[in-house]
Design goal:
The protein is mainly alpha-helical and 71 residues long. It has one domain: 434 Repressor (Amino-terminal Domain) (Orthogonal Bundle). The protein is 54% helix and 6% strand. The chain contains 5 helices and 2 strands. The protein has helices spanning 12-18, 23-30, 34-41, 49-59, 63-66, and strands at residues 9-10, 67-68. A two-stranded antiparallel sheet has the order 1-2. Helix 2 crosses helix 3 (34-41) and helix 2 packs across helix 4 (49-59). The longest helix has 11 residues, at 49-59. It is globular.
């Protein structure tokens, strides 16, 4: 992970809840563990491009809606 990963703005939890999904349901759809989803939501883990795309597809949004760099 890059040194700036802690600065990544993350809306995963917000958008997951808006979609009415649990961490478990999202993890099943994205083919990862629930712990991975939890770690992403808490800013501990930055997902790969493939995982970010799978999550975005499940939540019917763009990756840029989930993750942003600060200005």
């Amino acid at each position: 992970m890059g040194k700036d990963h802690a600065k990544l703005l993350n809306r995963l939890q917000e958008l997951r809840k808006q979609a009415g999904l649990t961490q478990e349901e999202l993890s099943n759809s994205a083919e990862v563990s629930r712990k991975s989803i939890n770690a992403i939501e808490n800013g501990i883990y930055v997902p790969s491009t493939v995982l970010a795309l799978k999550i975005a597809r499940t939540l019917k949004c763009k990756v840029e809606d989930l993750f942003k760099l600060p200005k």
